[in-house]
Amino acid sequence: GEIGAFADAHPELSLFTGPPRQPQLDRSKVWIRVDPYRKATGADGTGVIVGIVDTGIDVAHPDFRRKDGKTRIRWLLQAGKPKGVHAQLEEDYGCDDPNQSRCAILSDADIDAMIESGDLRAVRDIAGHGTHVASIAAGNGGPMVNARPRYVGVAPAATLVVAAPSLPGEGFEDPDILKAVRFIFDRAEELGMPAVVNLSVGSDFGPHDGTSPLEAGLAAMVGDNHPGRAIVVAAGNSGALYEIDGEGPMGIHTEAHVSPYADTRVPIRTPRASDGDAYVWITFRPGDEVSVGLEGPGGETWIGLIEPGESAGYTADDGETTGAVINRIANGKPIDANTNSAVVAFSGAWEAGEFAIHLKGRGDAQLWVTGLGDVSASHDLGLQFTRGIKQGTINVPASHPGLLAVGCTINRVRWQPQGSSTSIRLTSLDGEAIQEDSACYFSAAGPTPFGVAKPEISAPGGLVAAAMGSGVDPRNGPGGLFDTPGCPDDQPCFVVDDYHAIASGSSMSAPQVAGAIALLFQVNPNLTQAEVTDALQAGARYPRGAVPLEVQLGPGVLDLEGTRLALEAAESGDNTPALDRSWYVLSSTYARPDPSWPVWGTIELRRADGAPVRVPADKLTVAVQGGAMHAPLTEVRRGLWRFAVAAPHGSGGATLAVDVLYDGVSLGARELPVGSDVW
């Protein structure tokens, strides 16, 4: 049918797998309190694998070499033609399988030989993203070129295993990500070492409910049955909202309550496209029954309402512009039986204006839009819902409940560029006012469609100095990760020395946490993913700067010394919390009129010195008005408590009031509006 014709005509769209996932310390060590942790434990990452799945790594960069110049990278999986040096391993990971992405596998000895020969063409990190990320987690600052390294990663003595499973510029296909993570954990098991894997990749395409094959596959590699393993994922940078021509807020995510009595129209702003590709993922709740249609520019109906279990396509008169709706067809391409979802895709050429998704039936819809080609975010902001929201923008695969998602805070606002006698101070980033130790305005926010609190923690990611790959040095040519517009006299002001430069994103936040987990594993290699997550949350601190929306932050910011104290077997000092140092956060800014749809609360109790503190259970209470407790108040770990509340059926338009009290004294009352959607 037409849907098949659409797929056949556009194999490059990967309609049935979705668009590819995209890559998303000198100062940060103060924010994450790594120095007190190192002083107390002596940990530096020795004996722990830090795995990086990213665009690659500049193997010749000093940050990844020992003082004698030898590499710190134990294994490298690199997209491209198999080399046959480790033929059995390459066969094991499908490197020579014509049905899988080709790859080569290199050991540390191979890398050292390549460095010595000077021929590094096969292992370049053209994007520079993976090089920067890896050095935040485990760079040693380059002692081979600097006797007193400044830009040192969190776990500078860790052993690196790096996987670059995709060719430059092609993004990351889900099977390649899974293969890369399996490769890292397998090498760690072979070496008898605990391992933490950093994934600073993701996208807005997918159910966001943990059911996608990528999310499920990753989660299966960690958990209680896999002590000494952890996966850290960047939350994503999709939390920004925009006003365009006086209209907005616009964003990549929105939601809508769907009624059987009216056609719900969800507009999408689009720039002009001569070659654009668009994907919209729609997630419904279990049991929802919603028909989905597509309206093209100018109000033309491209595809009428398609019932669940059906699909349809559209071809324009030019024979090249096409569209498709796939509504809950559980064939795994891309929807499987574990999620109640629909996918809308359109491709080709059109004028600037508006597309719209039409919904009718019974249920609640969460929608995310992704644009490629002429409608990517780099082209006039790409595709945007005209009524966008920050809440619910957490990326896939960070949206899985069993994976540790990391949000972004601002690391610095001042630095001195290389060769400059004066410092640069930023007062705004992309037009948004910024200050140190604040939530990044673009950081993706939770919760997931069914209320799971996200992100699990935040860490410095805004304006982080780390390794600059040789292929992206803006002094050698325009373009690349560090060639950011707005520098004085058009000089590359984000370069801080010959080997390091500044970049921003939750991609830079996640490796802070990955490095922190490496230090935790060095002390206790038997920690599980859940134990690591709970400990990091129990030790978190509340940022000093602005947090306009706590659903972007999670429970708090990475604090390694606080985590160490939370993990101590015995508590020292007074066990009375300082209420001005304690806080709680809620997973949503509003409640649904549905007792099965919870809002989660996380309580962080601290002494006057900031240390997590255990308190008697009868001293801590949660007061609820306009709703009820969905999950009881429970102590998770010293200093960390959780609960959940929910609003009853028929309470739309009312208010759900929540207050947390210690010994009768409030930590701050909250009022949540109750509605079927945010509007």
TrEMBL record:
One of its GO terms (molecular function) is serine-type endopeptidase activity. It holds the Pfam family Peptidase_S8. SUPFAM superfamilies: Subtilisin-like. Belongs to the peptidase S8 family. Residues 45-242, 390-540 form the Peptidase S8/S53 domain. Keywords: Hydrolase, Protease, Serine protease. Coiled coil: none annotated. The active site is at 54 (charge relay system), 129 (charge relay system), 507 (charge relay system). This is Serine protease. PANTHER family: CEREVISIN-RELATED, PEPTIDASE S8. One of its GO terms (biological process) is proteolysis.
